[in-house]
Structure formats: C-alpha cells, structure tokens
C-alpha cells in the first residue's frame, strides 16, 4: 500500500497486516495484573485492508478489534478484522472496490453480477465494540452492527431479531442504564432526516421506539441518558450522499443555524424539549444527570465539525475541551462552562454512574500541540467534585487511546477501579496501560506489553465476565 497521500494513515495511524494471538508467555507484563478481574478490554478501530482511494478520518477504514482477556490474574491478546461484506468482497476480488464516505464510488457491474456487496457505502464496523444482552457487537453508525464471537470471529450482521429494518443505521454510541440494564440507542436512516430512539431490555430484546422529527438530516454521533431523559445535540452539521457521489465535499457546517439540544423523556410521554444555543459540535458525552430541576451534561466541546476543510484528510487544529452544560427545565435557560482547557477526546465514566451524579470523568488528553503529532499523549482524569484535572503522560510522542473505567468487583467506589487504554509509545512499543482510577501519580500499576503494533483506534469497553 502507498499511504503517503493520507495524513491520517501515517505513524501509528497506519494499518497492520496481521491477525495475531499472543498468550501470556508472548506478552510482557510489567507490574501486577489486578487480581479478580474476569472479562476483556476490547477496542475497535479503522485498519484499511486494501489501498484506499480516499480516506476521511475518523469515518473510513475496515474495522479491526483488539482484545486483552483477563482471567485469574492472567492475560491473553487477540486482534481480528470484522468480516464485513465489503471486506469479504474486496478480498474475493483482491482489489479496492469501495470509496470513502467523503467520496463514494459506484460499485462496478462485474462485482454486482458476481454477488459482491452492491452498497457503495461501506459498513466499516470500525467505531465501537459493546457487550450487552450476551451479544458482542462491533458497531458503525451508518448500518447494522456485526455480531462477533468472544474469540472475535465474525458471525454476521445483527438486526436485533428483526427490530432493525433494512436501511436502519444503529448508533455506535448506545448507553446502558445501570438501574434497568436497558440499552438506550437510536436509529437514523440514509433516506430520512428523522431520528428514532430505540430501547432494548437488559437481555437485548426490543422494548420501545420513540420518534424524533427533523427537517434536515444532521450528524448526530452520540447520545446521553439520565434517569428520566435522553439528550442529543443537533448541531448544524450535515452530510450529503448526493455530494459524496459527485466527489464533492459532502460535509456542511452552517453555524448561523445554531445548535439545538433535544431533551426526550425516556417514557416517551410528555413531549420533547428543545433548547437553543450558539453553534458548537461534539463527538462525545462524558456523562449526564439530573439535579435540582436541571439536567447536567458533561461533554467534549468542539467549535465546529472538523470536515469542512480538506474533508478531514488534513491535520485538524481545533480546540476540544471538557465542558459542563446545564439545562434548566423550568426556565429553558442553557448554561455552558469550560471545565478544563486541556485538549481531550474520547471521554468516559465509571459505567455504574451512567446517567447519575458522579465524580470522575476520564479522557484521552494531550499536553502538547495537537498539530505537532496529532495524537493524545496522556490519560486525563477530570474531578468534577474538586475541579481538578490530572494528567498521566506516557511520553512526548506517545499516543493513548480511549480510557475505559474498569470497576473493582469488590468495591462500589469509582476510585477503587482501574482505567485501561492502549498506548503506543515510540521506543517502548504498544501496551495496555492499567492506571489506578484513584491515583494517577505513580503512572500505570501494570503494563501489558504487546509484541507488535496496535494502531490508534476509536472506542473501547470492558466486557465484564466475557472470556474465551
Ligand atoms: Fe464516537
């Protein structure tokens, strides 16, 4: 592959060519693996398998999941591509067939005639990997999720036993309510501007659909739940399939429209509330909760969608900062404050506090110029009780991925758990970092070194009790 034309396929963003299995003898454990953990840290990401003709970070690239399994203080590692119909078709023809969400290509007739995937929009399955209702799913927000086995082999597309209809695109950012075990998710469609909240019970059975009408299809990536509400940001960010098919920049940012915050009752009753603010964009929430007649939302604020210049193929120098928003349900007033001036993304929380008052947020963070090396060299901890932001830096040129809070099975306290992420540090290589959630000062309590590269990726989760 010649990747020189693609800034976001350089360095540790470049793909790897192998699927690997490493047992504990091949991994090098530095420090002590926390005892008592049974489960797996899994992270999805983009790993192009064939020479790309066009590439938009972070929306393109074949999905690959990397996993570190924990059992009785021992660890194992695997990585596998998700066997999507697009990847299988390209493998069958041994060439690049599909384009990018930034530049779609018509599917050649010989590919269609031979039974290859006919949809020009690649379901990359590259964005997130979740484990809910005993189902392990690789997710991408433009289509159905892919069902995986615990060993990361692909079963195929999963439609939630018929709940998803052809053309439904399920978000890659569902939230699990710790009180009910419900998975709160949403579908959008390429052929409609509307949005549908989808609720599944703790076993993954479809319970409820709540429709939300829009006049224009917006780019809505994440959602946040509280005990009683679902909150989404409807920013003036739009994508046009027609423009992508013509090879034009399909991403639009129209700040004069402002950003609307839609508050949807989880009961589906009582109507939605709409709050209006100046334009901003956000990929990710950290958490949200209800307090004294207000909804509090912590999220990573960005000044605009990062695709309007160069379709995301250049290095984006934009501020990304943790903000706290308050929505006053009685007055309709919106408050918004910068919590920290640290550059951050991929914000997470102890999932047992999802939608509830909490103390700590975690995010991939940077203490250097984003434009210098375009990566996050720190794990950040945001203490919403004291206002303090604490960073652990892995090295000036390191890249740290999404930090996932892993609860201590013997404690309800956030600070007694661990924070895990993959790190690539030139000179040190790839490792899974395990920090103590309550004490960043000494750095990782354990590093699981992986004898090979783990490219930078997207979302990760702790799969409690999942094992090989
Ligand atoms: Fe995301």
Description:
The structure is a single chain. The chain is mainly beta. The chain has a single domain (7-464), classed as TolB, C-terminal domain (Neuraminidase). 5% of the residues lie in helices and 40% in strands. The chain has helices at residues 85-93, 109-113, 241-245, 370-373; strands spanning 21-22, 28-31, 39-46, 63-71, 74-81, 128-132, 135-139, 146-148, 154-157, 168-170, 175-176, 183-189, 192-200, 206-212, 224-225, 229-234, 237-239, 251-253, 259-265, 273-277, 285-291, 294-302, 320-328, 334-338, 343-349, 360-366, 378-383, 389-393, 399-400, 404-406, 418-425, 429-436, 446-450, 460-464. The strands form eight sheets. Strands 2, 29, 30, 31, 32 and 33 form a six-stranded antiparallel β-sheet that branches. A hairpin with a 6-residue loop joins strand 7 (135-139) and strand 8 (146-148). The model is unreliable at 310-315 (pLDDT under 50). Fe (ii) ion binds at residues 127, 173, 221, 283-284, 459. Fe (ii) ion (FE2) is lined by residues 127, 173, 221, 283-284, 459.
């Amino acid at each position: 592959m010649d990747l020189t034309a693609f800034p976001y396929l350089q360095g540790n963003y470049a793909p790897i060519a192998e699927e690997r299995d490493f047992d504990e003898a091949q991994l090098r454990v530095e420090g002590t693996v926390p005892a008592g953990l049974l489960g797996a840290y899994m992270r999805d990401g983009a790993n192009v398998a064939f020479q790309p003709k066009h590439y938009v970070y972070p929306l393109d690239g074949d999905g690959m999941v990397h996993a570190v399994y924990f059992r009785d203080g021992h660890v194992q590692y695997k990585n596998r591509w998700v066997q999507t119909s697009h990847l299988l078709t390209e493998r069958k023809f041994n060439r690049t067939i599909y384009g990018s969400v930034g530049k779609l290509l018509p599917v050649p007739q010989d590919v269609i005639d031979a039974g290859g995937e006919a949809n020009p929009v690649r379901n990359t399955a590259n964005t997130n990997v979740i484990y809910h209702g005993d189902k392990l799913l690789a997710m991408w927000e433009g289509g159905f999720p892919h069902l995986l086995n615990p060993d990361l082999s692909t079963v195929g597309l999963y439609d939630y036993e018929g709940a998803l209809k052809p053309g439904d695109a399920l978000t890659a950012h569902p939230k699990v309510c710790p009180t009910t075990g419900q998975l709160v998710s949403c579908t959008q469609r390429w052929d409609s501007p509307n949005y549908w909240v989808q609720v599944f019970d703790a076993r993954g059975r479809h319970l409820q659909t709540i429709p939300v009408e829009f006049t224009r299809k917006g780019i809505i990536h994440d959602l946040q739940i509280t005990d009683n509400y679902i909150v989404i940001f409807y920013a003036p960010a739009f994508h046009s399939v027609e423009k992508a098919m013509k090879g034009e920049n399909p991403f639009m940012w129209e700040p004069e429209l402002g950003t609307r915050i839609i508050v949807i009752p989880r009961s589906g009753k009582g109507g939605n509330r709409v709050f209006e603010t100046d334009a901003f964009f956000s990929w990710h929430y950290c958490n949200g909760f209800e307090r004294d007649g207000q909804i509090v939302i912590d999220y990573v604020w960005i000044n605009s969608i990062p695709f309007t210049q160069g379709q995301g193929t250049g290095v984006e120098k934009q501020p990304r900062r943790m903000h706290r928003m308050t929505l006053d349900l009685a007055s309709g007033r919106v408050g918004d404050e910068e919590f920290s001036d640290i550059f951050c993304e991929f914000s997470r929380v102890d999932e047992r506090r999802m939608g509830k008052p909490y103390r700590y947020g975690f995010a991939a963070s940077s203490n250097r110029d984003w434009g210098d090396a375009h990566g996050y060299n720190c794990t950040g901890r945001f203490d919403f009780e004291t206002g303090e932001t604490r960073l652990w830096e892995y090295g000036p040129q390191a890249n740290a991925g999404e930090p996932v809070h892993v609860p201590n099975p013997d404690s309800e306290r956030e600070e007694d758990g661990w924070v895990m992420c993959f790190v690539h540090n030139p000179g040190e290589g790839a490792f899974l970092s395990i920090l103590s959630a309550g004490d960043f000062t000494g750095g990782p309590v354990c590093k699981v070194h992986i004898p090979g590269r783990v490219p930078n990726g997207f979302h990760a989760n702790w799969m409690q009790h999942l094992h090989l």
